[in-house]
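FAQ: What does a multi-protein file look like?

Like this. Sequence, then tokens, then the next protein.
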Amino acid sequence: MALIDDVKNVLNKLASHGWEELFEAHGLDISANDLKQECLKLLIVDRNFPGFEDYSIEGNQGIVPGSPARSLIYHALASPNVKWSDKGASNKLTKYPTLEQLEIVENFVFGIEPKSISFLESKFPIGKFPNRIFGIVVFASQYRSAIDTPHKKHADLVYSRTGVSRVGTAQMKYVGESRSFTPVFKGNSKKIRVLPARYSVYLSVRLQGSSELLGTRFNKGDQWFQGIPSDPNLSFWFPIHKLFEGDECLDGMNLKIELNSFHSNEKISRIHKFIASDFSIDPGSRPDEHTSFPYTYSNDIASLDSSKSLVVPTPSEQIVKKANDNNPITLNKNFTLRTETPGGDSLDSFSSSLEIRSGSPPFMPITGGGNPRKAPEYMHIRTQKLRTGRLVDLNSKSSMIDTINNDSYKAVHYIDFTGDGIVNVNITSDRPINLINVPAYSLVAAPDFFPFVEQSEILDSTASHSGIWNRDPLTLADTRILPNVQSHPDLIYQGMGVFDTCTALISGTLDDNLQPTSFKDRIERRVTYLPDGAAGVFAPGWDTSFDMISVQNMSVPHLASYGLGSPFPEDAKLCAALSSFWPAVAPDISRSFWPARVETILPLLDSEIGAHGAVNSWDGEKGPTKIQRGNREVIRYKRFEYVDYTLNASNGMFDYEILSGIDADEYMERILKFKAIKDSQRINRLLLTSYTQVNRMDKDVQTIEVRDGVIMLEKIHKFIFANPGRTLQVQGNLQMIDVEINNERTLIIDGKDSIFEL
């Protein structure tokens, strides 16, 4: 069937669900007999129509050959803000395009007037682009609202040579209205859906870095690594023309396209190799075992759904589980902490996790104390395997810390289903294509506990607010280092420079003279799988970490998932304890356990951390609770070292829905309200003991309104602080501790940032 007929079928299926009226509002008849000519005719576009405020000013046709952003039909079907069939936004669309239907229309944009490879290459003359290189490149891509594009001028396809999918316990689910996937599993908050990433193949050109390519992210390399060139001195691939199967993609050619993927997880293997080679300690395994499951594995991580061009993580009943259920493998913990080599490698404990650190290399200055991760920096070491095979949870022992630091025992390994790898393409044609093939880098990352908050949104929102973060929340898209070429040498391709730009975000429209649209802020609730939704600071990281490799006689950093926690909840606990050190993915549990920290940045509600009688919590733990002890009130905390996110994850205790309701606006509102309180009041040494969001019916709010003769503007945030006093043991419960509280202060801030004290 011809592509135009496929497009007719798509539009016919949608027409009666409000789409016919929507297109008619812009002068487009999607039931026209000659649909191709109807798509190419000039239109008078109503950019005040809901969802079209950020449609490209340069766009004035149903289909503009080769330009999705300027094609009104594609924008309407792909934009998450197009939801209404009428200008008054009173009639909602009742059906949305599927992924397969969007793919058909996207292909039609590039295939409506097929061009030859030589013609497409001629658009980049060597006189203007002297260092150009052409290739067949695999990209992850997503159509986005204007504010989420690099150029921020109109809605556009955004590209990266890295995609970030996420693990889960349930099958993926596509939500047509948001044109994206959701991790939320309605009806069972203890389940989380896998999040896939979409990939496509493009005829591409490699160009020097410029503001046209990178927009607002131009020249913003991650300064975690010193010595990496700035963007004008780096090369970036720009997609020219999408390649798809059949004879309508390129003039005079019939293409067959096959995408395939490979991923691996090497965490346990890396731990055993590192301890054996760098410390000359027997880890309890043989070298020949390190290439097989569960030391290294590729199954059950992700697969490629060719019908949808998706890398889809494999759902697992347990998001974390013992490495070999019936006879779990172990690490011989036959060393005393702290053990250190002359080169700076060390085996130590951080709280109750095993901390594995490699020395800082002399050849690549790294700021912020970051070292390369030859192995996972943190490992779960709190499950002991006895000679009889029986497993002992060390969290039940009062001697747990002494055991971890000093004793020899077999520590059970746990596995997760994260990893990294490649997405590559095999293209065959009736005529040869003499161009290099450039694969994409694929991350299969840990869950994002704030799935509807993007790292880039927080970076943009906090640009005008100093002193919030210990380190700017740079995204993975701002990082300029190699992919994991050590584990996946196929990522090394002809013409690769020493430094790579595989995680960069690339604008879909290469034109510095674009007219900006009068768009409003984002209103969609959607998830991204591009790297600006991932963390770009590696200590050791959240979505990926880094290691070093020798390339072209230079030692350079590269991304590496094997540097993260084994399994990932070992990182999640420590990241969250550091006041949401990785914004937009890590919660802030700085006040949840003892010793509590005073550096809270993102306050979580009592109801979200299970505090003060709340039944549920996001992490399966019971938060701080005020109780009466004798003749005075105390707050009962769980000791931080006994908080075990690995076992919580393994036992299905995480609640993935509790924090999923927080969007970027709510996220930033909490941060800024709390910062306003801290900046205006003398609470620097006080503990935050309670945080709630209340209305004017709250008794404390009513007391203040009567006392001060004011009316508070909702939304109202109530914070309670206290001076910590003595710590008291809890008889019969070694995991808990009571903390006396003194001089409680209740501070309330309302919707107009007025601050009141009870």
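And here is the next protein:
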Amino acid sequence: MNLRTRLAALSLAAGTLIGCSNQRSKSFDHSSLNAVFALGLDSLAAALDSVAERSVNGARPELRRAFIDARRTFKLHELLIASESPHTMGVLNGPLPENDDDPNQPLGGAAGFQRLEDRLYADGELSASDRSSIRDDATHMSKQVTALRTLAPESALTETHMLDAIREELARISVLGLAGFDSNRPDATIAEAHNALLGMSRYIGLAQRESALHEEWSALDSAVLHAAQVVNHQDRLAFITTQLSEIGKRLAVLRERSGAVNDSLRLVWRSRASTVFEPNAFDASAYAPAFAMHPTPDVIALGERLFNDKRLSGPQTVSCASCHIPALAFTDGMARHGSIDGSSVIGRNTPTLLNVALQPSFFADARVNTLEDQIRVVLSSKVEMASSPELAAQRIITDSGYRAAFTHAVPNGLTEASLRNVLATYLRTLVRLDSRFDAAIHGDTTVLTSSERNGFNVFMGKARCGTCHLAPLFNGVMPPGYVISEPEIIGVPSRADTSHATLDTDPGRSRVNKNKRHRGAFSVPTLRNIARTAPYMHNGVYATLEQVIDFYNRGGGWGVGASVPEQTLPKRPLHLTTVEQRDLVAFLGTLTDRAR
């Protein structure tokens, strides 16, 4: 059976409606799209009901087959489920959101299919409690799908709506799907990307019939179908740089000609970029608050001057650059930064400021949401700058050169607020996305060695690094919205012990939200420039990347002997070979930016 025949067989409704007429309407009639979507939701609800029924007394293999069928049906319609109802998408296939108001909620819980999979593929027999939970979860999911089904016939699926849904699904496939974010089953990753592409093609075929841009839709469909054919046979880097890149090019043409591109929208992932791997795909100003300053050359130069001025600190002995040293990728090379006055207070490892603008929260415990506020906290911290924005402004205003520069560059002159805003504006210019990895992902794969290429596949595959450090930013911010970044509990030890470790005492996120079950939770840092930012982890416990990979290979904190009851990192060993570990280190080296 060829791919097109298989695609038609996957949905009787789609096959019927696509074959109804060869005539295209000049206006975009979404009724056929709505009808197929509604029937797809019916199929998904029925498949989930089957899981619930078999959970009562069905054998595990039978129950797993029902689960896989439901999961496959979901993937075929994922792009419209996510687009039409983010709430339903979250119920079916999302993380449980962090809830500061519930002290009993663990971190990193999964909903829907991910929770079903955890129970169905766990070791040991299914208990009565497991079966009851599976039945309840599948029934709840089915009800959510049925509720969405009642609204499906009324959805106004315009051409722009469809193109946006396809664009976002492409991001899910290339970043989350290929990394195995949705599933812990290694055999599921490629199969689910295949099914998601088939579902995408189904809806493209329907949209093509209704659009005046028939040839452009047809070209997009051909690229998607070809990607679905080869996804099982190519490594991830080649798949992204060839098949997904070609889909992106076809999608870009279609979006431009249909008017779907909206440059007025201020988005982290720019509206003009059809894939997240394109050059200039991200807007470093998108996370900035409404009152942020425009980055004129004068403001940027003024911010850099302040960044290097020791008068901002209380004792006037350190500047921002004392701990964020440009030559060390804006880190300081120390395990932890301590007090500036030599006291015994112990802090955390200094994070890089490169690409700091491309994250929605700051500090290892994510306690502030703007760079302007982060600067206020650092200036006021007794173990960092031991100053305050007000004190810093009072000192700086006595300098006639600064006064003149602020008067020239800043409408309101020099105030404590404008001082913070100018510094934040400078930090937002520290975006560096010019590594050898970027050159490779943009098409020049010759810049990588075979070891580095294999390392990327290990990163996205067996090592599961890409499920937390999400390409291409390699931080924890979730596509396609780039709004949410969930903290993780990985069980970082207090010292580099590989068998009888004790958990580091830093409370992490729990210090902020007071949830004891989130103790030891930290934001996912970027891995860009990681080869230049040793030592590693929030406490600098590991001196080399080899040690970091060994920690993950053993299963995180649990694997090195620490007691980490709420660990969100899978506790099982990765069983990486020596060669795979070496290749992984080699790949991480490709994330070093060439622009200094």
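Q: Is there any per-entry metadata?
A: Some entries carry free-text notes. For the entry above: Confidence is low (pLDDT under 50) at residues 1-26, 339-345.
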